[in-house]
Design brief:
The complex is a heterodimer of chains A (296) and B (318). With 296 residues, chain A is mostly helical. Chain A has 13 helices and no strands. In chain A, helix 4 (85-120) packs antiparallel against helix 5. The longest helix of chain A has 36 residues, at 85-120. Chain B is mainly alpha-helical and 318 residues long. In chain B, helix 5 (88-123) crosses helix 8. The longest helix of chain B has 36 residues, at 88-123. Classes of the chains: A mainly alpha (296), B mainly alpha (318). Chain B: This is Diguanylate cyclase. Chain B: It is a multi-pass membrane protein. Chain B: One of its GO terms (cellular component) is plasma membrane. Chain B: Its main location: membrane.
């Protein structure tokens, strides 16, 4: 990233994880720490929470329909079928967070491969790949997501695949720019001179040196994937009921806005909190992993 | 100027060609392809299906089909809707107005507020206002647009009763004030993300310019601080914003789709969703291609305007 190669070499000196410079910079970023803690707590709550609650997310209690939050046994109220909103929120969190994470892994995989190839093979292959990336970015993401989702049968894996297929382009751009500039550096040319294979140069020499922006992109990608899932599920083409997700909990909430506003407020707040946290962490990582930010 | 313009136009045309290939691929690589709607009915024999494929030219080699499809698209024949047999372009044109109205007004709103936040943030760097604005923009970028729409409806329509909860105007009352009243809610909702984007880039663009030599020279000459900001810094800092606005078209279109759904706004986004639920593929594909062209035009226009606003770019040929 930095203009001066020696600076990178200095910052690459082995350091402990917690007292390393990057970690110090990350901890200085209070919002990023807040985000990281929030993500941990949310994940923990979604994984463990459903076992601790007295209600299951599928338990229908017709007598308790539309119970308001904070007033009775149901802490966050109940939905039109009398299901406990908190239980559903936590189960939905499992799905939404898992979809976000899996879609991130997949789209990072595609983006890194395309970016690596495009950055390494300059000339026709690189140009063709990057023009393909540009063209994919011409489609507004929700239009593309919806157009394809209408053609496939919706299930959790297919939604993950769909989100990954439409969100790898930014990653490819980041990786391509990195690889292209790293390629001309001495260590890469030394590897060429030693007769390393192209694949080895790409994966063992260039990719590890581009890891910082990739980590940042991955974090922001989770935020993007959670948002994308919530959009298409809200519009009815994502995760299908009875499987709950934060997006599809909001699907019919608009019709109950007057009588049961908590049905709309609560899942949306959960999405906002999760996405904001991932964005804050991504921002903090960007500062932490950039050596130029290390001014006292 | 002309070589820059020509180069940029060629790039856009090449991109348009690739965009059309992707569009065609989505249409054909989907399970069943364009024939799936006929097969789904279940009351047709294989012979019937073959005959339809023959009539529509769907049994010819894919490159030939692509060439024909592209030619039809270029000559303005985008097919007819399955729903009401109207030409697709005609239907899109009918829904474009409300969407553009929403996009333009919210962009204007976002520019004014976002630029203001960004300028104050850059001038009073690290102040309380600046850090609040930084946190605020990050949250604004993370809020799902549809949820923000629901919150706006809940607070201003259900709670306070100030704003209508949807539609473009009250039926039987199409006056300007009535339309304006209906526009406020969706406009604010759609402007949220754009405002965040504008204030972020405006701030960093201002900071870039503030540290440059000509600003220091102006200070050394004793030009009043206010004048430095308004003429020297702001004018230069606004230049990159042309590009930002051009690149923001795709997310603006996505936002418009969601906003239109929440506020039952009769625009292109609503039409797109309706067409998807009717499995009206010609309209779905038409709108998808149309939005891609809008995105391309947005970035092309931004580049050309930048060339006009900053002659250095055009002359150097970038």
């Amino acid at each position: 990233m930095s203009l001066d190669p020696t600076l990178d070499a200095l910052s690459a000196r082995p350091e402990g994880f917690w007292n390393g410079r990057g970690m110090r910079r990350f901890r200085r970023h209070k919002l990023a720490v807040f985000g990281a803690i929030t993500i941990l707590l949310m994940t923990l709550a979604c994984v463990v929470g459903p076992w601790l609650l007295p209600y299951s997310d599928t338990f229908i209690d017709i007598r308790q329909r539309f119970a308001a939050p904070f007033g009775g046994p149901h802490v966050l109220g109940t939905d039109p079928l009398g299901r406990d909103v908190l239980a559903r929120l936590l189960m939905a969190g499992r799905i939404s967070l898992a979809v976000g994470f899996c879609a991130m892994v997949l789209s990072m995989g595609i983006g890194i491969m395309v970016g690596l190839a495009a950055g390494f093979y300059e000339g026709f292959i690189g140009a063709a790949l990057m023009r393909f990336v540009d063209a994919m970015l011409c489609f507004p993401s929700i239009f593309l997501l919806l157009a394809i989702s209408a053609l496939i049968s919706p299930s959790v894996p297919s939604i993950v695949l769909l989100i990954a297929m439409t969100s790898w382009m930014e990653v490819a751009r980041v990786v391509e720019a990195q690889i292209r500039s790293l390629r001309t550096r001495e260590f890469a040319q030394a590897a060429v001179a030693m007769g390393s294979s192209n694949l080895r140069i790409m994966v063992r020499e260039l990719l590890p040196n581009a890891i910082a922006p990739i980590v940042v992109a991955a974090t922001l990608n989770v935020a993007h994937a959670i948002l994308a899932e919530s959009y298409i599920s809200f519009l009815g083409y994502g995760i299908q009921p009875p499987t709950p997700s934060w997006g599809n909990m909001l699907e019919n909430a608009q019709s109950y806005l007057t009588s049961a506003p908590w049905l709309a407020i609560i899942p949306g707040a959960a999405i906002t909190l999760a996405v904001t946290s991932f964005n804050f962490v991504g921002d903090g990582l960007r500062d932490a992993l950039d050596p130029r930010m290390d001014q006292p | 100027m002309s070589s820059f313009l020509l180069q940029r136009l060629m790039q856009a045309l090449l991109l348009l060609l690739i965009v059309s290939m992707i569009g065609f691929a989505i249409l054909h690589l989907a399970p069943g392809g364009p024939m799936s709607q006929f097969a789904a009915g279940g009351d047709m024999t294989q012979a019937d299906l073959d005959r339809i494929a023959e009539q529509l030219g769907l049994n010819r080699p894919l490159p030939v089909q692509y060439a024909e499809w592209l030619w039809r698209m270029l000559s303005g024949d985008w097919g007819v809707s399955y729903r009401d047999q109207q030409p697709v372009l005609h239907i899109i044109a009918g829904h474009l107005g409300p969407t553009l109205e929403l996009m333009l007004t919210s962009t204007l709103l976002a520019m004014l507020i976002g630029a203001w936040i960004g300028i104050i943030g850059a001038v009073k760097r690290y102040s309380i206002f600046d850090s609040m604005a930084t946190i605020g923009t990050m949250i604004a970028l993370s809020i799902p647009t549809f949820w923000f729409g629901l919150v706006v409806i809940y607070v201003f329509s259900v709670g306070l009763g100030w704003l209508p909860s949807g539609n473009r105007f009250t039926i039987g009352d199409g006056s300007f004030l009535n339309r304006l009243h209906h526009l406020v809610g969706p406009c604010i909702v759609l402007a949220l993300v754009s405002t965040a984007v504008w204030s972020r880039y405006m701030r960093s663009s201002m900071l870039d310019v503030i540290n440059q030599d000509f600003v220091r020279t102006a200070r050394a000459k004793g030009v009043p601080e206010r004048r430095i900001l308004m003429t020297h810094v702001l004018r230069n800092a606004l230049l990159p914003m042309i590009t930002i606005t051009g690149l923001h078209v795709p997310s603006l279109l996505s936002g418009a789709l969601v906003t239109e759904t929440v506020f039952t706004w009769p625009g292109m986004g609503r039409l797109f969703l309706d067409s998807i639920s009717y499995r009206d593929y010609p309209v779905v594909m038409g709108i998808l291609m149309f939005t891609a062209v809008m995105v391309l035009l947005g970035s092309l226009l931004a580049d050309l305007l930048y060339g006009v606003a900053d002659p250095r770019i055009a002359r150097s040929g970038r």
